[in-house]
Design brief:
By secondary structure, this protein is α/β, with parallel strands linked by helices. 34% of the residues lie in helices and 18% in strands.
Length: 236
């Protein structure tokens, strides 16, 4: 029986670029750094019909993978959004998926990359990639999945479906994450600038004034986002 699932591992900051191909597992070692860069490398080297973008801190629920593959085999969409459960308590969700029943334009602000399973042919046909100015390892360490989803679904009309099963686990403890809130606000400004629609300035203003316990003043939030919002228009 042919393999229905294969793994492509991107290992960064190696001494030289190397590629290893084992049965069902490919390892690409590269010298460069950046989460978005690693996902673009995975997309370039992928030879399957679907690609599921994952991080190194998730735990796969391997007993549920066959059901996911069965769903993909019969799926007439360009993208499937799967659920993630809490690592600390797998009976609880990683986030409030009840809020996913919204317009796709607003869902773009809530999506996580580890929830995205995409049809490779659709991505390549539309030259869709992750913006390497965003994501961990860059100066703007977030929002890469939001822009990727927006460009796929809103700009290129990808059809997607929500999959009502958790297929992996991710920590829900904030203390387990290292968060640079100032850099994240800068990333949000860049994201909104790249979206370039009439609602972006309104969202930027809302993110600046809403209540938050990140310790950053409303004025500073506004300046951080606005600077990147403007500069994004001059960034490829």
């Amino acid at each position: 029986m042919p393999l229905r699932v294969s793994f492509l591992v991107i290992s960064q900051l190696e001494l030289k670029d190397e590629f290893y191909d084992f049965e069902g597992i490919k390892v690409f070692k590269c010298r460069e750094k950046g989460l978005s860069k690693s996902r673009n490398l995975a997309l370039r080297e992928c030879n399957s019909e679907w690609i599921w973008f994952q991080d190194d801190d998730i735990h796969l629920l391997t007993n549920r993978i066959p059901m996911l593959v069965d769903c993909l085999d019969s799926l007439d969409k360009d993208m499937l959004l799967v659920k993630v459960a809490s690592l600390e308590d797998p009976t609880k969700p990683f986030k409030d998926y009840g809020r996913y029943s919204v317009f796709a334009r607003f869902l773009a602000f809530r999506i996580s990359s580890i929830e995205i399973v995409a049809k490779v042919s659709f991505l390549r046909k539309n030259n869709l990639k992750f913006d390497e100015n965003l994501g961990l390892g860059s100066a703007l360490p977030s929002c890469e999945e939001n822009l990727f989803f927006y460009q796929s679904v809103i700009e290129n009309k990808a059809h997607f479906k929500l999959y009502d099963q958790s297929v992996c686990l991710h920590t829900t403890l904030v203390e387990n994450r290292s968060i640079d809130y100032k850099a994240r606000y800068r990333a949000k400004g860049y994201l909104l600038g790249k979206m370039r629609n009439l609602t972006s300035p309104l969202v930027l203003f809302w993110w600046a004034i809403r209540g938050s316990n990140d310790g950053i003043s409303r004025g500073l939030r506004l300046r951080l986002m606005l600077n990147e919002y403007i500069s994004s228009f001059f960034t490829n």
